[in-house]
Design a protein that fits this description.
single chain; alpha/beta; 7 helices
């Protein structure tokens, strides 16, 4: 079936922006140091910064281990600030309200986001189910059995349904967190 993908911008609040700036400075410092090493050391000239950081962070005895770890951890923390942005919840709610005839799935990377958004939507009178790995198996099975009920309009999931599960009752999706690989992105669209 045909589909359209739209990217919507959300703003970080002041606290989120401050944390992002800190992690971004750490990331840039590590990135620049790794780039300089590649430029000045023939041993690494066939590598890019990303690969050098990956190699260095994995090997404790690597001379660039601390820099590689700083690169990866600051990049990861920067992403998590974006994944957890409070404004995404409001954007999700507004979008779902704008298209009340759709049956939605919202993908997130974080269980707290899933639970918070489900609670917020339910308090708005939009019947919503949450699905994530901290739920018991029988509760997850009940959610998947219940989502086909027409009165439920939204399923919010934390990665557990990103790949490998067919959800034919749903016809619109919100990816509230980015994905690291193209394959996972394609799988999410396929849901």
């Amino acid at each position: 079936p045909a589909f359209k993908v739209f990217n919507l911008k959300v703003k970080l609040n002041a606290g989120e922006r401050a944390r992002y700036v800190i992690y971004n400075k750490m990331f840039e410092k590590a990135r620049i140091e790794l780039a300089q090493t590649i430029k000045n050391n023939t041993l690494y000239q066939d590598m890019d910064v990303f690969d050098l950081a990956a190699d260095a962070s994995r090997a404790v005895n690597h001379p660039l281990h601390k820099v590689g770890k700083a690169y990866w951890s600051s990049m990861s923390m920067r992403k998590w600030v974006c994944y957890r942005a409070e404004s995404k919840k409001k954007v999700c709610i507004d979008l779902i309200k704008k298209f009340p005839d759709k049956k939605w799935i919202v993908f997130s990377k974080e269980i707290k986001f899933v639970e918070d958004l489900a609670q917020m939507l339910n308090s708005e009178g939009i019947l919503t189910l949450a699905y994530h790995s901290n739920m018991k198996d029988n509760d997850r099975a009940a959610v998947l059995a219940t989502i086909s009920d027409p009165k439920y309009k939204v399923l919010v999931s934390a990665e557990a349904l990103n790949v490998g599960y067919n959800l034919p009752d749903l016809d619109a999706a919100i990816c509230a967190s980015g994905v690291s690989t193209e394959l996972v992105g394609i799988q999410m669209i396929g849901r």
